[in-house]
Amino acid sequence: MKIATFIHNNARKVGIFDEVSATVAPFDLPADQARQGIQTLIELQVAGSELPATTTPVPLDQVEIEAPIPRPRRNVFCVGKNYHDHAQEFSSSGFDSSAAEDAVPKHPIVFSKVPESVTGPGALIEYDPAVSSAIDYEVELAVIIGKPGRGISVENALDHIWGYTIVNDVTARDLQARYSQWFIGKSQDSFCPMGPVAVTRDDIDLGNTGLRTWVNGELRQDSNTSLLIFDIPVIIQTISGGVTLLPGDVIATGTPAGVGIGFKPPKYLVDGDRVRCEIDGIGQLENAVKQRSCRAARIR
C-alpha cells in the first residue's frame, strides 16, 4: 500500500495513493491528527486500532504532495558509507574525515539530520553560497519504524518496520570536510527531501530493490539494495543497542556510488539543477536546486 501526506483545500491530509487512477483517497481523520502525516497512522496501528475509513478520492493534480512525515519528532538517523562502491569513491575523494586504513567501515557509521532539514517532493533544495559551494545528492532507501524497541535483534528487526520511503541525503561536502563530524553538512535547511509516498513494509524486497538518481536528466546513480554493506536488520540492531527506536523514526540506509564528489572534477549541484531520485516500488522524488538570495531563516 502506498500512503501520501498532502495538502488539499489548504488542509493537510493523509490518504491512500493510487497511481493507476491518479488519485489519493483521504483517511477520515481529525485535522489535528492529519497534521502529523503518516505518524498518526503508525501510532494508531501500534495501539492496535484499525485504519480509518477513506473518503472520496481526490485527483492528484488538485493536491500538493508533502513528505510522508512533514516534521519528524526527532532527528532522522542516517548510515554513512554503506555501499562498497560509494565507500571507495568517498575515501578517495579526500573529503572523508572518518576514513581509516580501510575505506569500507567495519561497523555501521551512524549520524543524523535535524527534523527541520526535511522537505517534500517538488520543494526547493536551497543553499547559501556564503556557507557552502559543494552541494551533493544521495539517493537512499529510508526505513520508517513502526513497533518501538531497544536492543532489537537481527532476527526480530523486520518486525519493527512500518514501511519505507525515499530520502535524498543532500550534503554540503565542504562543511563535511571542514568539521570532524557530518552533522552540520547534512542538516542544512531543506537538505532532506523525503517522499513522495511511504509504502508498507511488505511492498519492498530489501534484498533486491533498485535505486537511481538523475541530475538534469543525466543518470548518476544506479544500484541495488543487494549491494548494501550492512543490511537493514544489522542497522536496526546497531542503532537500537542503546537507543530506543520509536514509532515514526526514520532511518536512511546509505547511498551507492555516483554522487557528485565521486566525479573528477566533482559534479556538485548548482542553482537551477533538478535532482530526481527513484526507488523501485516507491516512486520518484524530484526537487529543484535554488541558491538563496539571503540568509533569512526558513520558519514553518
Describe it.
The chain is an alpha+beta fold and 300 residues long. It has 2 domains: 2-66, Vcp-like ATPase, Chain A, domain 2, CATH 3.10.330; 76-291, Alpha-Beta Complex (Fumarylacetoacetate hydrolase, domain 2). It is 13% helix and 33% strand. It has helices spanning 31-34, 38-46, 84-91, 173-178, 183-186, 232-240, and strands at 2-8, 11-18, 23-26, 58-59, 64-66, 76-80, 109-113, 118-119, 125-127, 135-136, 139-145, 161-168, 171-172, 192-200, 210-215, 218-224, 250-252, 274-279, 283-291. The strands form 3 sheets. Strands 1, 2, 3, 4, 5, 6, 7, 8, 11, 12, 14 and 17 form a 12-stranded mixed sheet that branches. A hairpin with a 4-residue loop joins strand 2 (11-18) and strand 3 (23-26). The radius of gyration is 18 Å and the shape is globular. The model has no long low-confidence stretch (mean pLDDT 93).
Can you lay out the helices and strands and say which pair or pack?
Layout: E1 2-8, E2 11-18, E3 23-26, H1 31-34, H2 38-46, E4 58-59, E5 64-66, E6 76-80, H3 84-91, E7 109-113, E8 118-119, E9 125-127, E10 135-136, E11 139-145, E12 161-168, E13 171-172, H4 173-178, H5 183-186, E14 192-200, E15 210-215, E16 218-224, H6 232-240, E17 250-252, E18 274-279, E19 283-291
Parallel strand pairs: 6-17, 8-14, 9-19
Antiparallel strand pairs: 1-2, 1-5, 1-14, 2-3, 3-4, 6-7, 10-13, 11-12, 11-17, 12-14, 15-16, 15-18, 18-19
